[in-house]
Amino acid sequence: GLGFYTGTDGYLYVDNLRIDDIRAQVPDSPFYLYSKNRITANYKAYAAALEGLEHFVGYAVKANNNLPIMRHLQSLGSGAVLVSGNELRAAEAAGFDTTRTIFNGNGKLPEELRLAIEKGALINVDSEFDLENIAEAAKAVDKAARVLIRINPDVDPQVHAYVSTGLANSKFGIRNSHLQWFLDRVRQEPLLELAGVHSHLGSTITKVDIFRDAARIMIRFVEKIREEGFDIKYLNIGGGLGIDYHRRGDKIPSPADLVNTVRDLVADLGLTMILEPGRSMIGNASALVNTVTGVKTNGNKNFIVIDGSMSALLRPSLYDAYQHIELTAPCNGKQDTFDIVGPVCESADFLGKERELATPKAGDGLVVHDAGAYCMAMASTYNLKMRPAEYWVSDGELKQIRKGETLQDHLRYFEGL
Ligand code: LLP
């Protein structure tokens, strides 16, 4: 098996290992558990989809910044997409060739821009002030900055408002009507090299048509920019592909479906295509493994209380996101409808609502699936529930890939003050 599935014996597995056997070996709970082979397969799906096109895949590190995971993606051939100086430093620590990285963001700091230019990263221009900051930083380090202009395609990705980024009123990208100003400013600055255009529509996208709509719009910009005499190379259509969070076999487009909707549009333009996947690279390669603390009923609601919480995994609380939940072992408790909640002191602390499950017992295992992207990366220590340890199964063997955070880590911030 590859990734997470229910075996013929009714137990939940990751690759070849029973999750309950893993739980018996691991001292921590909750913990994040990954399938390294699933990550490899996800990367290879992108690489295969892009065959025949000049391309570069930039893994969006924001989705998961675990160092062994980053190192693994790097070893497979991935580049990296970054949103902070620290992400750039972490990518370098993981072995990424920093000239194959892209530095994105609407609020890049002067110090971060200097670092990115020194390291040879591609840099997205997001606004007028951002362009001025990039030009200043290039002068400060006396090195040319290779930039992409982030177009705002104003295409609705039809996703939750919090993860929608390419609409006219969003905080990202340039005012398209002001393009000429950007071209003129780049022309005046000898240390700015216009290398391409970028857009990112949003995240959890399950309709690839909108990538074609956006690519069409971007290609009009490419033509206009070329007419102005710039020799641009990169068409970066961002990340955003969704995954099958509901795990009921919905038809979710694959990387090949995504690439094929735009292939003919980019093939003839002599452009290098860049994709920036985060979620679809890592999301389905992990689950948060929790232990049931108890079961209770209030009013007409049943609750399964687990040791994991919104501190370990925030997406349901923040976006009302659905992540599938299962028990790790066959269970003959009564089938019922439950909210799955953590121990944190607020009602937003839930991992799932109205789920049909067999009534578990204290000590049983319960997983929240598809927890590879934006879960550990967004974890906090709220209520001093410390950030979980991480493990992966690598070629059939369990290995720890991140230590659990401890209270000592927290107390250290106050030492000597
Ligand atoms: N490129 C840019 C410029 C981005 O802003 C993002 C994600 C990506 C690439 C990667 O997108 P992906 O392939 O992962 O969809 N915390 C939210 C997701 C925020 C996404 C932010 N930008 C969540 O938990 O769903």
Describe the 3D structure:
Keywords: Decarboxylase, Lyase, Pyridoxal phosphate. Its cofactor is pyridoxal 5'-phosphate. It contains twelve helices and 20 strands. The chain is of the alpha/beta class and 417 residues long. Strands 4, 13, 14, 15, 16, 17, 18, 19 and 20 form a nine-stranded mixed β-sheet that branches. The protein has an eight-stranded parallel β-barrel with strand order 5-6-7-8-9-10-11-12, surrounded by five helices. Strand 5, helix 3 and strand 6 (79-82) form a beta-alpha-beta unit. Helix 5 (110-118) packs across helix 6 (128-141). It is globular. The mean pLDDT is 96. Ligand LLP binds next to helix 10 and helix 11.
By DSSP (H or I, 4+ residues per run), the number of helices equals 12
Mean pLDDT: 96
Question: What is Rg?
Answer: 23 Å
Shape: globular
* Largest sheet data: 9 strands, mixed
Please provide a brief summary of the model.
About 30% of the residues lie in helices and about 25% in strands. It contains 12 helices and 20 strands. It comes from Coccomyxa viridis.
